[in-house]
Design brief:
23% helix, 137 residues, RNA Polymerase Alpha Subunit, Chain A, domain 2, alpha+beta, 8 strands, three-stranded antiparallel sheet, single chain, 41% strand, 2 domains, 3 helices
Length: 137
């Protein structure tokens, strides 16, 4: 002999609707709380010029400051400051003469956080000339 259950009766007696709703709300809340929030900041950094030959000098620069838009997870963004990232231009291949465009490179110093950096401008125009020296009494 088969015994049939009345579904409506079981739901009412066991209070299944409030239990299922509570379970679903707790799952949604857990997913929301466990997600890391994305954050975005914009900071201006000075550009550091490296590798220039001692016989050359920088005569003119299009900009000395780069604006960096940094985006990443909120927890990793707390440690970002002007000492945690360096923006450099490598001038080891520089030749004197006309204006030339050099890319701005960046490197992390103290941070293990993952983030994305967008630069404005991405490169800099520099005029390099030969250094002329003379002794004056």
């Amino acid at each position: 002999m088969k015994k049939y259950y009345d579904i409506k009766k079981v739901i009412k007696e066991k209070n299944l609707i409030p239990k299922v709703v509570s379970l679903l709300l707790s799952i949604v809340l857990w997913i929301y709380a466990s997600q890391e929030k994305m954050n975005e900041i914009t900071i201006k950094f000075p550009i550091i010029f490296n590798g220039l030959n001692a016989n050359y000098i920088i005569s003119d620069i299009s900009t000395k400051i780069v604006t960096a838009k940094i985006s990443g997870y909120q927890d990793g963004m707390k440690s970002i400051n002007s000492r945690s990232i360096k923006f450099t231009v490598d001038l080891s291949t520089a030749e004197p003469g006309n204006y030339r465009t050099y890319p701005i490179e960046w490197q992390k110093i103290d941070s293990a956080a993952n983030y994305v950096i967008t630069l404005d401008p991405e490169d800099v125009e520099i005029l390099i000339e030969e250094k002329i020296e003379r002794k004056v009494q």
